[in-house]
Design a protein that fits this description.
Elements lengths: L3 E10 L2 E11 L4 E5 L6 H8 L7 E6 L2 E2 L5 H7 L1 E3 L12 H9 L6 H15 L14 H13 L5 E5 L7 H16 L3 E5 L3 H7 L2 E6 L2 E6 L1 H5 L2 H8 L10
Parallel strand pairs: 3-8, 3-9, 6-7, 7-8
Antiparallel strand pairs: 1-2, 1-4, 4-5, 9-10
Helix pairs in contact: 3-4, 3-5, 4-5
This protein binds adenosine-5'-diphosphate (ADP) and magnesium ion (MG).
Length: about 240
């Protein structure tokens, strides 16, 4: 059974077709990269998958069950969690308390939630900041916090929206390793990313959106050499740079 099955999904904002007849599928354990120019509809697709927006038409099945019409917390409970491109932690709550909010998706016990939050903070390397107000974190730390909040919900499929944007090369390297480790533990990943080296290295497969439409899908090498992708997004400089 496929993990995620998206069929003919569409979403319009007024006169703008943000997502157009999108079909995608993901296998259990897979890392699928979602790339494309700004405004291509990537974040909108995430919002549709995670229940923050309702599609105009189309179907989204997760582990054989339709998600259309479900609320974000219900979808999260089924095991599909997303991060937000614009990270907005509760600034006055501590880092630990922010992560505990995620952990409450799985337990009503605040002790269990706190224990789970500590474990996740350790995993993302933020344990030293557990008691700091989230508003005091650097951008790189806020990105880790966003990841920690999502991990605390114990996802089966995690949707990551530009978690590397704005990070230094060293910080990017660390988050790539972190993401690799999350996938190695069995969590499937769908990642929107503009950092090409990272997305090409992490992804088993890549899907390319342009003006809401899927214009290419394949291995990183196939996509990096696809003339439509080069024209719409990558430019000549990326052609042939993907690993096999
Ligand atoms: N809530 C919204 N209302 C109206 N237009 C929107 C809304 N969200 C996104 N859009 C528009 O939809 C298009 C796709 O946006 P988005 O999904 O954020 O693209 P991406 O994440 O690929 O950069 C853009 O033209 C954007 O301006
Ligand atoms: Mg976006």
């Amino acid at each position: 059974m496929s993990l995620l099955e998206v069929r003919a999904l569409s979403k319009r904002f007024g006169g703008l077709q943000a997502v157009s007849d999108l079909s995608l599928s993901m296998a259990e354990g897979e890392v699928l990269g979602l790339i494309g120019p700004n405004g291509a509809g990537k974040t909108t697709a995430f919002s549709l998958f995670s229940g923050f927006l309702a599609p105009d038409s189309g179907e989204i099945e997760f582990r054989g069950r339709s998600l259309v019409g479900l609320r974000p917390h219900q979808i999260c409970h089924l095991g599909l969690t997303r991060t937000f491109q614009i990270v907005r932690p509760f600034p006055h709550l501590s880092v630990l308390e922010n992560v505990r909010v995620g952990a409450f998706a799985r337990t009503a016990s605040s002790q269990t939630a706190a224990a789970r939050a500590r474990q996740v903070l350790h995993e993302v390397g933020l344990e030293a900041k557990a008691d700091v107000p989230a508003g005091e974190l650097t951008l790189a730390e806020r990105k880790r916090l966003e990841l920690a909040r999502a991990l605390a919900t114990e996802p089966v499929l995690l949707l990551l929206d530009e978690v590397m944007a704005g990070l230094s090369a060293a910080e990017t390297e660390r988050i790539v390793e972190l993401i690799r480790g999350i996938n190695a533990r069995g969590v499937s990943l769908l990642l929107i990313e503009h950092v090409m080296r990272a997305v090409m290295n992490l992804s088993h497969r890549i899907a390319v959106l342009n003006y809401g439409q899927l214009i290419a899908e394949g291995t990183p090498a196939q996509v990096a050499n696809d003339p439509r992708v080069i024209e719409a997004y990558l430019g000549e400089e990326y052609a042939g740079t993907a690993p096999g």
